[in-house]
Amino acid sequence: MFGSKKSPLKVAKPSSVESWTNPFDSNDEGMDTKKYSSSRKTSSERALTTLGVNTNPFDDGTDANKKSSSTLYGFQSANWNKYKNDFRDSGGLENQSVQELESYAVYKAEETTNSVTNCLKIAENIREEATQTLVTLHQQGEQITRSHHVAADIDHDLTRGEKLLGSLGGLFSKTWKPKKTRAITGPVIVGDDPVRRKGNHLEQREKLGLTSAPKGQSKLRSPPQEPTNAFEKVEVEKNKQDDALSDLSDLLGELKGMAVDMGSEIERHNKALNHLYDDVDELNFRVIGANQRGRRLLGK
Amino acid sequence: MGDHIAKGQELAKRAENKLHACCPLFGSNLEDAAELFHKSATSFKLAKSWDKAASLFVKSAKCHLKLDSKYDAANAYVDAAHCYKKTSTSGAISCLNKAVTIFTEIGRHIMAAKYSKEIGELYELDQDIEHARSYYERAAELFEIGDAATSVIQCKVKVAQFCAQLQQYQKAIKIYEDIARQSLDSNLLKYGVRGHLLNSGLCQLVQGDFVAITNSLERYQDLDLTFSRTREYKFLADLSASIDEGDVEKFTRVVKEFNSITPLESWKSTLLLRVKDAMKVKEMEDDDLT
C-alpha cells in the first residue's frame, strides 16, 4: 500500500518513546471492518464511558490533572506534595539544596506546561462550539429569508382572494376594495459586511505577508534528545509552552474574528426580522379585512 | 392510562362505523373518520400504546389520501412514524418514506428533505451505513431544490463520512473538497473549512499514495491560505512524513498528540487504525526482505 522504501537501519529512538504505551496495540487489531461505528454514541458506548472505560484507541487515559511527564523525570508523589506547598513543611525555599530547587523548577515548568495545554484544549473546544454556532446562525438566516419568501407568496394568494371577494356580492351591492396600508416588500437581501469582506481578513493578511508563520512549515514534533539535567528539562518545557502559547494566541485571534462575525450576522438577522415583522403585520391586517368581508357576505 | 385506552377504543370504533356507513348523505364520512382516527390515535399515544396509536395514524392518513388532502396525509404518516420509533424502526422508516414521497409530490421539498434526513438518522442508529448514506444523499438533493444551502452542506458532510467508512475514499475526498470550496465563500462557514480539509486529508492518507497526499496538502494551502498555520495542517503533514518514513511509533505519537487537544471521532480513529495496520504490514514485509 505504501510505496516508500524503508531503510533496514533503524535510528535509535529516545527512551521516552520506548516507554510510551502504544494506544493502537490493543484488541483493535482484529477489528471487524464490516461493522461501522456511528458518530453518535450507542448505549454500550455510553455505558463504557460511565464505567470509565476508554473507547478511543488514541486516548492514553491520563487526566488533564495527572502529570504524565513528571513520571519520566522520576518524581515521587511525596516530592509532589512538598513542591505543591512550596516547601512550607521543610523549612521554606531558602533551606533547600540546589538539587531540590532544580527538581522544583522542573516540576513548576511541567505544571505550567500542563496549565497552558489545558487552556489550549479549552480554547479548541470553544472554537469547535463557535464553528457550530456560526453554522446554525447561517441556517437561521436562510430560514428567515425562506419565511419571508413564504410571506410574499401569501401576499400573492391573498391579492387573488381579495379580488374574488370584491367581485362577490349582490348586483346592487357596493364594490369592496381591500384596505392596504403598505406594499409587501419581501425579503431584503443584505450581503456580508463589506468592511469585513475586503479588509481585515486573514487571507488578505496572508497575501500581504503580515502573518508570522511561513507557508507550509510544520513544527518539529519528534523530541530531539532526552534532556539530561534540570536546566535542559526546563528548556524543553519552555519550548513546549512557547508552542502552546503561540497556538493559543492564534486561536484567540480566530475566536475574536468569530465573535465579530456572529455579531454582524445577528445584526443582519434583526434587520431581516424587522422587515418580516412589518410584512406579516400588514398581511394580518389584510386577512382580518378579508374575513370581515366574508362574514358580511355570508350574513346577507 | 386505562381511561385513555377506553376513550381511544371508543373513538376508533366510531371512526370505523363512519368509514363503513352505508348512507353517506349526512356530511362527509371520510373527513369525520380521518378526524376520529386522529383523535383515537392521540388517546392511545397518551396511554403509551405506541403500536396501536401508529396504526390509527396510518388509517387517518389513508382517509386523507382518499380525500386528496395530501398534506394532512403526509403529516399523519409522520405522526405514525414518531410512534413507531418507540417500538419498531422498520415501521417508522416505512411511514417516513411515504411521507417523503407525498411531500415531494406536493412540492414541499424542505419537509421531504427533513424527513429523508430523519430516515438516514434511523439507519445510522441501526449501523446500516449503506442505507443511511443513500437517504442523507437524497436529503441533500431535496434541500438543494428547497434552496437550503447550510442543510445541504450538513447532509453532504454525513454522506462523505459514510463514504469514508464504506472505504469509498475518492468519493469522500471529492465531497469534502467541494464543501470546503463552498464554505470559503461564506463569512460564517469559512471557519469549518479546516475540519473538512482534515477529513479529506485523512481519506487521502488511507489510500496510501504519498505523492497524492503531498499534492493534496499543497492544493489545500492554495485553496485556503490560512490552512498552513493550523494544527490540522501540521497534523496531516506529520502523519504524511511518518508514513513516508514507515515509522509506526512516530505516527502513533503524532496521533496521540493531536488527540490530546482535539479528541478524534470514532470513524476517524478507525481510518487511522487502517493506516497503521497497513504500515505494520509494510514494516513486516521490509523486515522479511532484510
From TrEMBL, chain A:
Keyword hit for Transmembrane helix: no
Domain T-SNARE coiled-coil homology: 235-297
Cell location: Membrane
Chief subcellular location: membrane
GO cellular component: plasma membrane; SNARE complex
Region (Disordered): 1-69, 189-229
Gene3D superfamilies: 1.20.5.110
Bias (Basic and acidic residues): 193-208
Gene Ontology BP annotations: protein transport; vesicle-mediated transport
Keyword Phosphoprotein: no
GO molecular function: SNAP receptor activity
Domain of life: Eukaryota
Annotated Polar residues bias: 16-25, 45-57
Keywords, sorted A to Z: Membrane, Protein transport, Transport
Annotated family: Belongs to the SNAP-25 family.
Stored PANTHER family: SYNAPTOSOMAL ASSOCIATED PROTEIN, SYNAPTOSOMAL-ASSOCIATED PROTEIN 29
Name this polypeptide is given: t-SNARE coiled-coil homology domain-containing protein
Native organism: Glycine max (Soybean)
Lineage start: Eukaryota, Viridiplantae, Streptophyta, Embryophyta, Tracheophyta
Automatic annotation (TrEMBL), chain B:
Compartments where found: Membrane
Superkingdom, natural source: Eukaryota
Entries under InterPro entries matching the protein: NSF_attach, TPR-like_helical_dom_sf
GO cellular component terms, semicolon-separated: SNARE complex; vacuolar membrane
Residue intervals passing through the bilayer: none
Membrane topology qualifier: Peripheral membrane protein
Keyword Hydrolase carried by entry: no
GO molecular function, one term: soluble NSF attachment protein activity
Keywords: ER-Golgi transport, Membrane, Protein transport, Transport
Predominant localisation class: membrane
Gene Ontology biological process terms, A to Z: intracellular protein transport; SNARE complex disassembly
Pfam family, one: SNAP
PANTHER family, per the entry: ALPHA-SOLUBLE NSF ATTACHMENT PROTEIN (PTHR13768:SF29), SOLUBLE NSF ATTACHMENT PROTEIN SNAP (PTHR13768)
Purpose of the protein: Required for vesicular transport between the endoplasmic reticulum and the Golgi apparatus.
Entry similarity comment: Belongs to the SNAP family.
Protein's UniProt name: Alpha-soluble NSF attachment protein isoform A
Originating species: Glycine soja (Wild soybean)
